[in-house]
Fold:
Amino acid sequence: MSNIKKDPLKNQIEVAKGGLLDRRRFLASGASLLSVAAASSMSGMASADVFDSHPKHMKTPGIPSKLYGKPSQYESHVVRLPEHVYSSAIITAAFTPIDQLNGVITPAGLHFVVHHSGIPDIEPSGHQFMIHGLVNKPLKWSVESLLNYPMVSRIHFLECAGNSGPNIIANSPMDMTAGQIHGQISGSLWTGVPLKYLLDEAGIKPNGKWAMCEGADAGNHVRNVPLEKLYDDAIIALYQNGERIRPDQGYPMRLFVPGYEGNMNVKWLHRMEISDVPSQSKDEQSQYADFRADGRIKQYSFNMEVKSVITKPSGKQQLPKDGFYEISGFAWSGRGKIKAVEVSADGGKTWATANLEGPIMSKAMTRFTIPWNWNGQKAVIVSRAIDEFGNTQPTREDWISRYARYSLGHNNSINSWLVSNDGKVSNYYV
Amino acid sequence: MSNIKKDPLKNQIEVAKGGLLDRRRFLASGASLLSVAAASSMSGMASADVFDSHPKHMKTPGIPSKLYGKPSQYESHVVRLPEHVYSSAIITAAFTPIDQLNGVITPAGLHFVVHHSGIPDIEPSGHQFMIHGLVNKPLKWSVESLLNYPMVSRIHFLECAGNSGPNIIANSPMDMTAGQIHGQISGSLWTGVPLKYLLDEAGIKPNGKWAMCEGADAGNHVRNVPLEKLYDDAIIALYQNGERIRPDQGYPMRLFVPGYEGNMNVKWLHRMEISDVPSQSKDEQSQYADFRADGRIKQYSFNMEVKSVITKPSGKQQLPKDGFYEISGFAWSGRGKIKAVEVSADGGKTWATANLEGPIMSKAMTRFTIPWNWNGQKAVIVSRAIDEFGNTQPTREDWISRYARYSLGHNNSINSWLVSNDGKVSNYYV
Structure:
């Protein structure tokens, strides 16, 4: 945007160094600030100019709607980042372009995807879900029967345990977009059947404490989930953002354990075996353990911790010139609600409290914003979130000191972006 | 589902006639009710059976994810209802299959669509939004500049003024689905720039009271909106459900006036002319006036009123047999939040209060549910919503008495479904 003139800025109060502005003051007199920023004056324009400007698409009828609509052809660059094949050549992941999106809901077509042996094509009439093991009565359900069960609908985030891994692996910050680094998180409205109904129906034996949850994919993905969690807020998700969940999210059904790492939300779910101890599945052993700095292994670290990312401005974006911007991003915690997000524009020396867009929901992405007057000089913008239990984000340095150098799961350290004096935005370690 | 045995029902309390059950009691002992309903016992099943049941897709690797994902091929029937061409042959509409969906968010690909001359293909770099007329400084904005403005994100419904028209036109209830009758409503997370910033930037002259809002489509859609509303909660919507809005929803930008009838949320918005009186546009004159029973015309009836629809079970669905079901639907009000939804299973003689799925948001779809034990006899299920201001829904008879017989806009009368003793569900007038 353009140069800030003196008058509008007079009304503004800097709430932290580097041009972070007071939100209320901005709302009260922001228009005068904006007025010098982005709009072009049309003073003296004759009304004929308005009508002469009518483009071709106002003179020729358009096309009918599609039975199932699609985004504009001019947004065809907004796609998942192509599937990344990890060294195992089995696990592949496609990230959400969070730097291209806004709000706290991710379109299902852009939800991040991770799978261990491709996406199965499951004909729903041939699929069943069963609960067996330490139960009074082993039971199985058809998809159709589950669709008749009582359901709940809740907005939650889903995040891969390995999200933001690039910022751990690389000793110096890689020049990547927010989506390339942090795009293994998405937000959806998930609708499905509370697990407690199904567990009670089968009747858990007194020594039943864990459920081995298995997906019907060729990777035969298996995770062990404590029954306590399944009785708390877990569902068999059948719908995502209003429609039936899609094959890449587990069609015809997936386990959804709010706040837990992505891979525990077992896709293509077809079986739960109730046991007294966890079964130590191959996936837990080979993929989803955390390695501590002291050489010990931390297993069953289920919760995704409190975290935040600024998406606007963010890596590889370009600010056209100095002046007014809104810093915007989102925060989340696998333990509950976001209580506050603080933003710094001077690399973490001074902080201001951002505005949170409500309603603030538990274990859901929460959008935060703060007005910013960029003076055109080098700036480092940083965010840190605090959840309702007072948990906050460690620095990258703190985080790394706790884990083995090759362990990258559960990185919730503070993220930052460098804005160079030419307006280029790039990944940065504070 | 199947027969209800005596034991589980003993624990249940009927809160209204016809088998509507107490929700708390149901939650406490619902499992025993469900246990006789939907699951198949696997008692005696050897663990070998579990593994022998592994289907082909567990033995062969699946496919990679798409850059922009799609629903399962087995859900290809879940599409918008094909565009309906009205007598004018100009206005066409495609409805949302609300009977196939759940939750309170509609995937953008299934959002209902109405347009007056097709969907324009707008290249965003050539599109501008201008405010002129009774302003101190006529201004225009490029799409790119608006994308840098401060934004808000809110979940709201959008409903066509003509929604549920079939239930007014037809003297006897037509055998249609909930989508075919009531599918001109959808819910989304809308993100965009508050209009107040832009209006203040242009500077409204003291006699400026209305904005003539024009779309850049060949239909040249125009509606007059009071400035008071634009200063309240209106936005220039740039994102829907996280991604840029789609061509059929107004790409690259639309006006969004929460709670107002759909056509006022002018798509492909490119111009607002501020005036002292409304301009009496062709659309207001020919399409969007309400005709009273006494012959007088009611113009500028902006708000969509409080309303509710049961989607499960609903028209043309089939209940397999008597037993337990969850009645599920959604309610909304263009004036604010939903306060309560009452459900009847005996055609409106007795009523019970349904559970509302939170968070309850203003001018947004709110999902309601209530457990129901269907005794297999003819039943008429009905819902009526009450908003935070105490507004409720009229009966169809009441509604019709107020309007000319051919006037079908703003029908918010009570809807009901007949469940025949063979389990067939059909449209019904109470």
The longest strand of chain B covers residues 185-194. Chain B touches chain A through 119 residues (CB under 8 Å). The CA atoms of residues 175 and 275 of chain B lie 46 Å apart. The two ends of chain B are 27 Å apart (CA to CA).
